[in-house]
Amino acid sequence: MRFPAAYALRTQLSTGVLGVTGAAPQTVAGKALDSGLASVCLGARVYAKAGTASLTLAAKWQVLDDDGSTWIDCVESNNPANVVLVTAAANVVKLVTAPLAVVAGNRSARVVVVSAGATGAGAGTDECSIAYDFRMPVSAFGS
């Protein structure tokens, strides 16, 4: 079933294309999103390109700690590994769904792309972008 257009917000808070530069592990953070806006359906649309041999890019969700100073990795209850998006000489666009704890906490959340393996060469060779897709609750009057 598809939701009416009024419910769906796509590619919100896009970072634009950012380079992954330097020795791994490097992180590229998405913009912070108020997870309370997202109801129960939240995902990150992540573009990742790894042109350098032996470089991998993975994505993970984080939430802002209660004191507002530290980002905490957020995982499902079975504590799975980060989602590897791409390895050397490839590029992809994937929708990475948020763990339920991200929307349950009603706090700031973000996606971080993390490199592993080789040294990133920067934009044009090794790069990523992050934007959010979510369904926003609306009233019967459409607001």
What report would you give on this structure?
This protein is mainly β. The protein has one domain (8-135): Jelly Rolls, CATH 2.60.120. Helices cover 3% and strands 50% of the residues. The chain has one helix at 100-104, and strands at residues 8-12, 18-19, 21-22, 27-29, 33-34, 42-50, 55-64, 71-74, 83-86, 90-97, 108-117, 120-121, 126-135. Strands 4, 5, 7, 8, 9 and 11 form a six-stranded antiparallel β-sheet that branches. Strands 1, 2, 6, 10 and 13 form a five-stranded antiparallel β-sheet that branches. Strands 3-12 form a two-stranded antiparallel ribbon. A hairpin with a 6-residue loop joins strand 7 and strand 8. The protein is globular, with a radius of gyration of 16 Å. The mean pLDDT is 84.
The CA-CA distance between the termini, in Å, is 21 Å
- Number of distinct beta strands: 13
Per DSSP, the total helix count is 1
Classified by CATH, the class is: Mainly Beta
Computed structural class: mainly beta
The percentage of residues in β strands lies in over 45%
The CATH architecture is Sandwich
Oligomer status:
single chain
Q: Tell me, what's the shape?
A: globular
Which segments are poorly predicted (pLDDT under 50) over 5 or more consecutive residues? none
**Rg, Cα atoms, Å:** 16 Å
Mean pLDDT: 84
Q: State the helical fraction.
A: under 10%
The CATH topology is Jelly Rolls
Order of helices and strands: EEEEEEEEEEHEEE
Short note summarizing the structure:
The protein has 143 residues and is mostly beta strands.
Topology:
Elements: E1 8-12, E2 18-19, E3 21-22, E4 27-29, E5 33-34, E6 42-50, E7 55-64, E8 71-74, E9 83-86, E10 90-97, H1 100-104, E11 108-117, E12 120-121, E13 126-135
Antiparallel strand pairs: 1-13, 2-13, 3-12, 4-11, 5-11, 6-10, 6-13, 7-8, 7-9, 7-11
